[in-house]
Specification:
Blueprint (H helix, E strand, L loop, with lengths): L2 E5 L3 H11 L4 E5 L3 H9 L4 E2 L6 E6 L3 H13 L3 E6 L5 H9 L7 E6 L20 E4 L7 H13 L3 E4 L2 H27 L3 H4 L4 H7 L6 H9 L2 H25 L4 H22 L14 E8 L4 H11 L6 E6 L5 E8 L1 H13 L3 E3 L2
Parallel strand pairs: 1-2, 1-4, 2-3, 4-5, 5-6, 7-8
Antiparallel strand pairs: 6-7, 9-11, 9-12, 10-11
Helix pairs in contact: 3-4, 6-10, 10-11
Length: about 350
């Protein structure tokens, strides 16, 4: 691949353009908003404006509802030899492209499973896709050259190709992406009218659950409108679980011993099923999640403190597998949670204490 056209200079389009230009591909940038194009170009993502001659690959990075008309236009005008899209829904746009008279031979639906809460070109980074799955949904009609160019794009972006059926992909993202977004927003919405004293008690748990609730509502309305059926099906199942949990909680307050016992069993069932589901989420390097030990260290909010604690862990010969920071409300301090292999936890704790760090018992 020597040349490419990116149509849509939001987070995904600009990030792909940055990755390609960084690896020597000449990228042209197009968007209905000229200011976004100018911003992406200023960031080094490519050249503003459509190409004069056909490029190797066009990357359509627009909302799902616009994929079909934009792709059909690119094909009709001969702007690229091959065309892919990177929208988060795949079945509907492909059917709409066929209805619009588009060429399915020269088109391939793809979806990089990567993103951020922020949107727009200023949120883009060249390493956004590093190590992330990038779904390809080829059909028997897909031209080999198109598939090869898509695979080359994925390799240049440092992502991992995953081949799926388009409708199976849409059901999968409804479960692992679209429904979690709605549930996160629903939990966060409870905080809007909450008493200030309750909000001040927010800890790392509520921060984890509501992190993606900061996402752009307009963008998510477009995504959910393109995949409503599968998301509604999963939400209906969740609603059933919620009804059962409510009944179980009511039973916990009953004076009847038998009812209370049923409530305990109901809540325990939900929690255990949650344990089982969480255990299936891939961990480091895509492997099964490891049972890491957590070493919690009190850390002040001063420049260089994180670097110092990582250096001390390295000097102790301990590899940090994961890290989280729990900020203390109203204080210039917090706890950094270092996840390590169980066998290394005691050595790390001893080494950090020797270097003057204050540890919290887990």
């Amino acid at each position: 691949m020597r040349t490419a056209l990116v149509v849509g200079t939001g987070l995904i389009g600009t990030s792909a353009a940055l990755a390609l230009t960084g690896r020597g591909v000449r990228v042209h940038l197009s968007d209905l908003d000229p200011e976004r194009v100018r911003t992406a170009a200023a960031l080094g993502a490519g050249t503003a404006g459509e190409p004069d001659v056909s490029v190797d690959l066009a990357i359509v990075a627009v909302p799902p509802a616009h994929v079909a008309p934009v792709t059909a236009d690119v094909q009709r005008r001969g702007l690229a030899r091959a065309c892919i899209d990177v929208a988060s829904v795949k079945g509907g746009p492909r059917r709409e492209l066929l209805e619009a008279g588009g060429d399915l031979v020269g088109y391939l639906g793809t979806h990089p499973m990567s993103g951020r809460e922020q949107n727009g070109p200023l949120a883009a980074t060249a390493d956004l896709f590093e190590g992330r799955p990038w779904v390809l949904t080829p059909t028997t009609e897909t031209d080999t050259e198109v598939l090869n160019l898509a695979l080359e794009l994925i390799a240049l972006c440092g992502a991992v190709p995953v081949v799926m059926d388009a409708d199976a992909h849409d059901r999968a993202v409804a479960l692992v992406s679209h429904t979690p977004q709605l549930l996160s927003s629903m939990i966060a919405a409870r905080l809007e009218a909450a008493d200030e004293t309750a909000v001040r008690l927010c800890g790392q748990g509520i921060r984890d659950v509501t992190r993606i609730a900061a996402s752009d509502p307009a963008m998510w309305v477009e995504i959910l409108a393109a995949n409503p059926g599968p998301v509604a099906d999963i939400l209906a199942d969740v609603a059933g679980d919620l009804d059962e949990a409510v009944r179980a909680l009511r039973a916990l307050g009953s004076a009847d011993e038998e009812k209370r016992g049923g409530g305990v069993a109901g809540i325990e069932s939900v929690l255990r099923r949650g344990n089982a589901g969480r255990a299936r989420v891939p961990g480091k390097h895509g492997q099964a999640p490891a049972a890491y030990r957590t070493v919690a260290v009190l850390i002040s909010d001063r420049p260089g403190e994180l670097a110092r604690i990582f250096a001390d862990a390295g000097a102790a010969g301990v590899n940090i597998e994961d890290v989280r920071i729990e900020h203390a409300t109203g204080q210039q301090a917090g706890h950094v949670q270092l996840m390590v292999e169980p066998g290394a936890a005691s050595a790390l704790e001893a080494a950090l204490r020797d270097r003057g760090w204050s540890l919290r018992q887990q």
